[in-house]
Automatic annotation (TrEMBL):
GO terms for molecular function: coenzyme A diphosphatase activity; metal ion binding. Residues 23-154 form the Nudix hydrolase domain. It comes from Neobacillus massiliamazoniensis. The keyword Protease does not apply. InterPro entries: CoAse, NUDIX_hydrolase-like_dom_sf, NUDIX_hydrolase_dom. Its cofactor is Mg(2+); Mn(2+). Keywords: Hydrolase, Magnesium, Manganese, Metal-binding. The keyword Ligase does not apply. This is NUDIX family hydrolase.
């Protein structure tokens, strides 16, 4: 291969996250609603009939489909499907930092204002119930943070003879911070709590 051909390939290459083509991509909306006592954050409790994470607390959202125009469109579509509202009832949709999880997922979170919460009609196949928490609670309450350690376990046929140190190779391990917010009888944790914490950091 000639150097000109190599350079032309690089010039026409648009950088992205390495390996992201094979990653599952999801988009969510952190919904805000205006109540008489101020701004509230809306949460869903996932339907008990769902295969993944039944009964857990989350934000509206889901997998980005090939038919979605972009990440924001996917987040809005999922929110309309789960809360039974129209696109025009979700305004001020603005992005937060996207997240790459240790499990190969890329999550694109957005903040959006639900202008007509009285029109919400839950999709019972996906949502068991909803509840709201005053935004001020999160502004004045730090999350509890606990660590999960990941253990490295190479497969049985791993070629230790090809790496320096062999079976005594010093693997770099990592810890994952898990965030928890406790509000009355509700436990908000995992990706939902991490996105929420990031949002609060921006506000502060």
């Amino acid at each position: 291969m000639e150097i000109d051909a190599v350079m032309s390939k690089l010039i026409n290459h648009t950088p992205t996250i390495m390996g992201s083509r094979h990653s599952s991509k999801y988009a969510v909306v952190l919904p805000l609603i205006q109540k008489e006592d101020g701004i509230h954050v809306l949460f869903e409790v996932r339907s008990l009939s769902l295969r993944r994470q039944p009964g857990e607390i989350c934000f509206p959202g889901g997998k980005i489909e090939s038919t979605d125009a972009d990440e924001q469109a996917a987040a809005i579509r999922e929110t309309t499907e789960e809360l039974g509202i129209s696109k025009k009832e979700i305004t001020e949709v603005l992005p937060l930092d996207f997240m790459i999880t240790p499990f190969g997922m890329i999550v694109y979170p957005f903040v959006g204002l639900i202008t007509s919460p009285e029109n919400i009609k839950l999709n019972p196949m996906e949502v068991k119930e909803i509840f709201t928490v005053p935004l001020d609670y999160f502004l004045t309450t730090d999350p509890e943070i606990y660590q999960i350690s990941f253990k490295v376990e190479p497969e049985e046929k791993f070629p230790f003879h090809l790496i320096a140190g062999g079976k005594n190779y010093h693997w770099r391990t990592r810890n994952l911070d898990e965030y928890f917010y406790l509000y009355n009888d509700k436990v908000i944790w995992g990706l939902t709590a991490k996105i929420l914490s990031h949002f609060i950091e921006i506000l502060r």
